[in-house]
Amino acid sequence: MNMILSEKEYQAFIMERLHKDNGYLEPRKATNFDRLFGLDRELLFQFLNDTQKEMMDAIANIYKDNLEETIINFINTETTKSGGSLLNVLKNGIEISNMPLKLMYNKPATDFNKELLANYEKNIFSVMEEVWASDSERIDLVIFLNGLAIMSFELKCNMAGQSYGDAIYQYRAERNPKTRLFRFKAGVLVNFAMDLEEVYMTTKLSGSDTFFLPFNTGNGTGVNAGKGNPPRRDENSDYSVSYMWNDILKKDTIINLITKFIFIETKEKEDELTGKKKKSENVIFPRYHQLDVIRKILGDVYENLTSQNYLIQHSAGSGKTNSIAWLAHRLTSLHDADNRIIFDNIIIVTDRVIVDRQLQAAVMGLEHKSGLIKVMDDKCNSADLAKALASNTKIIATTIQKFPYIVDSVKGLKDKHFAVIIDEAHSSTAGKDMAAVTKSLGAGEQEYDDIQDEIVDEIARNGKQENVSIFAFTATPKPTTLQLFGKLNYKGQREAFHIYSMKQAIEEGFILDVLQNYTTYNTFYQINKEVEDDPRCKTNDAKRQIARFVELHETNIGQRIEVIVEHFRTSVMSELGGMAKSMVVTASREAAVKYRKALEDYITKKGYTDIHALVAFSGKVKVKIKDENGNKEEKEYSEAGMNGFSEDKLAKQFDKDDYNVLLVANKYQTGFDQPKLCAMYVLKTLKGVTAVQTLSRLNRICPPFEKKSFILDFSNSYEDIKAAFAPYFTTTLLSNSVTPTAIYDLEAQIDAYYVLDPSDIDAANDLLYKSIIDARDKKKLTFYFSKAKKQIENYDLMEQTQIVSLMRNFNRFYEFLIQVSSFEDVDLHKKYNFITYLLSYINIKHPGGGFDLDGKIKATNFVQKKAEEHQTPNLVAQPIVKLPVADKFGLTEAKEERLSQIIAEINSRTGKNYDNDVAVKAMLQIRDILLKSSKLKTTAKNNTIKDFEFSYLDSIDDALIEGLEQNKDFFSLLLDNDEIKKQMLGIFTDEIYMSLREVGE
Q: For 439-487, what is each residue's pLDDT tens digit?
């Protein structure tokens, strides 16, 4: 295979593959494109006349010479009107003067109807290159189906020094979402950004905010599979993205995608204040792993019918709801080799008491057919379920809890074939509930000669039933789940039929790695001690504010609550624009009650009005709690009683801004989807799958915010948590190696490149903390970030990568340190803010959300405490004063000679080689800091020079710490050596005393 060396060669290569291998027409000239309607007129009417000649003749009799314009305008109206779409037109056709016209033929489910098969083969696929969508927008490739534009491609060649990131940038920065070709729902169905190694897609262009999803196969195998595609082995092997032309762009695949996968998702959200419902729409195009799992399952079922069970190990963030909807929908029409339907009913089983209506919406989005799906919600009883199983309803969604009640009442189901899709197999498949499923669906009208036969049959019905296939979805399969549903591999081990790993989901940005910001209480304590002891953190009292919990040694309820509340208030609460929430995981119902009581007592005592907690546990519990007089009194508590509303309302109430802490006891630790959960405080031992499921409550992303999660674990060890996650995702936990020294070292490495201008950092922060950021401010900010970006681009590609990597590490370490400690450095925080936005600005070429400056600073995450310091200067110290240059103040010859002697002595004693001029400059900097000390000013005014000297020498350390960044090595030496310190800075005692007295007078 020839090496592709340019974008033009890449375009030609793909067009050749599409024409020679996939049956597309010879590449069309771009002049055939009608940019006003987004189509190729000639091919549209060729398709209509070839497949529907009689209908076209009938319509022509009515519209005569206006036939083509009438049809094109009608198609345009149907695709662009409110509620209309190109997808709907392709799937359902149009109707003109009561005469229907199909714009695409589906592939028939069976081969009975030869005419339908013939028309399916007449679908016309074509491709154009260098298509002008407007006078300023030229697109690399556009794919057409029957003359209608359905896909666009921006191609980049890695050998030419470009990548998919540059293609993403083009779509975001150089493509107008209002251009007809790109118009949401009416233009192409999907836009691909593709190089020779990776593919990304979007179904909606939104300028710089356009969100791109990966469309890659994954690189690696099993739980260790990560993002991207397998690398190309050698020059003779296929390119990493060859699956695009070898599979995705084949005729059958595209028709299959349009008819069976792509759908328009509609969501309604009610405004709590006005009660009005706001509707939002998204075009859903399957991610690669979703398409892959459905096709592989269907292929296997076609071969094996109902003889197998299937385990699908898909991580959170895999889009499981849509995968289940696609699978259910496809299984309803799946036929075997003899053209017989394989399944009579598809049953979706969940362990949620109220079945998620998202499933119903997704299924109906694929095919809006009356009676296709029946949701057995909380209003339905077991009798309703039994009735539905005996009816012709194709898809039934229910809870597993209903099955035990119908084991004995459902008869005559042995002749029907069922596909049972289980949502969250790890919890749904427990004990009697799962046995009831197989017993119900395997029940026949059987007469028994004696009781022994009945027992034998009952045991048989508890196993795999020949008329039932089970499709179990889970992110964390237990050994029992693998035993029930896993397939045997060549080593004799049971494994999942299909895997989308946690590692890949994290790397692709669909979920957060909760272990990146996981720390045990021991680590938390040690880091705080290290921060407290680090001289660089010891500025004045207002800057230090070392939290009281550093000194805690006991772990009783009151002390833990203090840690939790203070950490949440100072480091978490203002995340997500003030919407952040936390979960406290307790060991028992009694513990949940006691911690809730202790929390209420603590926030009342402190006068906090911004923390409001809910509690979650099952049933009722009697707990002895001290009353006001210190006497223990036993009372009965329930979740509803403590919260003030029924259990079924908790999830909705907790989602409101009214509540931000949820204390749980064996509840809401699995299946609870709350994207605003940012922090978790663990007060119980967690093992195995339970540990993964519990901590993973934090892993949901929360667009448009750059959410960071944080876990403080009082009860488990680093090794235990690592072991729990290992079977599902091999990861490295962040240990206690993050210290102020590590942060300052990273800062020094970044500064060495001279890409960040300190004055730009200050100016940008002044703008970022304004109450309202207007268009002029955004323009200035963009200028600052653009300037830094250009500075980075002055280096070669390898060094650019190194700089960005250093910045990412700096941000990650800084965020972690801020979360777990009282570390404070205002200048460093300004740099963190600047780098955060700079990385977003650079990332406009990368997947996910683009660069966005709307609203107040939203990327500071857990460090909003710092924002308060900038916004309320009367509460905290001012940023570090910029120090004057040395030649501004002179030294007498005597003083300079004395300093030179001391420096020579230092060099002799330490083996160092401090430069005389540098040291003199440093001393003048310290003198300047001391001259600005209000404390020394007061002391000088009210004391003799002898008494002043004691206060002066005490203040030297503070001055050295404040100026430490100017000369770390030399000032650290002085801090560690009192004798040398007094010698050097004693030279200035008289001068500073007299100067401060004069100012005071």
A: 666 655 555 443 333 333 433 355 667 788 889 888 888 777 777 788 8
- Mean pLDDT computed over 807-818: 82
Contact yes or no for 621/637 (Cβ under 8 A):
yes
User: What tokens appear for 978 in the block?
Assistant: 């009192």
C-alpha span between 121 and 971 (Å, rounded): 81
Strands 613-616 and 581-585: unpaired
Least confidently predicted of 80-94, 451-465, 503-517, 713-727: 451-465
Lowest pLDDT segment from 134-148, 780-794, 900-914: 900-914
Contact 936, 953 (CB under 8 A): no
Paired tokens of 831: 């740099």
- Cβ burial, residue 857 (10 Å; 0-12/13-18/19+): buried
How far is Cα 566 from Cα 965, in angstroms, rounded to an integer?
A: 30
Question: SS3 for 112?
Answer: coil
What sign results for the dihedral spanned by CA atoms 492, 495, 499, 504?
A: negative
- State the alpha helices, DSSP H only, in 608-716: 639-643, 650-655, 688-695
Residue 398: phi and psi, rounded to 5, are -150, 175
Alpha carbon distances (Å) from 357 to 93, 322, 353, 418, 761: 29, 12, 12, 22, 48
What DSSP string describes 547-596?
-GGGG-----HHHHHHHHHHHIIIIITTHHHHT-EEEEE-SSHHHHHHHH
CA distance 899 to 919: 8
pLDDT digits (tens, 9 = 90+) for 508-561: 988 998 888 788 877 666 666 666 666 555 433 322 333 333 333 334 688 888
Report the phi/psi class of residue 64: left, alpha or beta, with left for phi > 0 and alpha for psi in -120 to 50: left
Going by pLDDT thresholds of 50, 70 and 90, the confidence category of residue 74 is: very high
pLDDT for residue 886 is more than 50: no
Q: How distant is the alpha carbon of residue 773 from its chain centre?
A: 26
Write the CB contacts of 664 (distance below 8 Å, at least 6 apart in sequence). 583, 584, 585, 586, 592, 615, 616, 617
Task: Report how far residue 46's alpha carbon sits from residue 776's, in angstroms, rounded to the nearest whole number.
Answer: 53
* Count of beta carbons in the 10 Å neighbourhood of residue 294: 22
Q: Of 43-57, 93-107, 594-608, 858-872, give the lowest mean pLDDT range.
A: 858-872
Angle at 848 between CA 846 and CA 849, to 5 degrees: 100
Q: Which two tokens stand for residue 314?
A: 């898909």
Phi/psi of residue 509, each to 5°? Answer: 85, 15
Angle between helices 320-332 and 288-304 (to 10 degrees): 30
In 3D space, the residue among 283, 410, 284 whose CA is nearest the CA of residue 347 turns out to be 410
Cross-strand pairs, 277: 270
Q: What is the structure's pLDDT at 85?
A: 95
180 in Cβ contact with 37 (< 8 Å): yes
User: Which residues make beta-bridge pairs with 633?
Assistant: 625
Contact 20, 27 (CB under 8 A): no
In this structure, are residues 203 and 284 in contact, taking their beta carbons and an 8 Å threshold?
Answer: yes
Which residue shows structure tokens 């909705």? 652
Element of type H or E holding 642: helix 639-643
Q: Which of 280, 292, 301, 25 is nearest to 146 (CA)?
A: 25
Asked whether the beta carbons of 184 and 265 are under 8 A apart, the reply is: no
Residue found under tokens 């395997």: 442
Among candidates 519, 525, 530, 532, which has minimal Cα distance to 553?
Answer: 525
Look at the chain and count its residues: 1001
Q: Contact 595/584 with Cβ under 8 angstroms?
A: yes
Q: How many helical (H) and strand (E) elements, i.e. helices and strands, does the chain have? A: 40, 29
Strands 710-713, 677-682: pairing is: parallel
Confidence of residue 858 (pLDDT cuts 50, 70, 90): very low
Is 33 within 8 Å of 71 (Cβ atoms)?
no
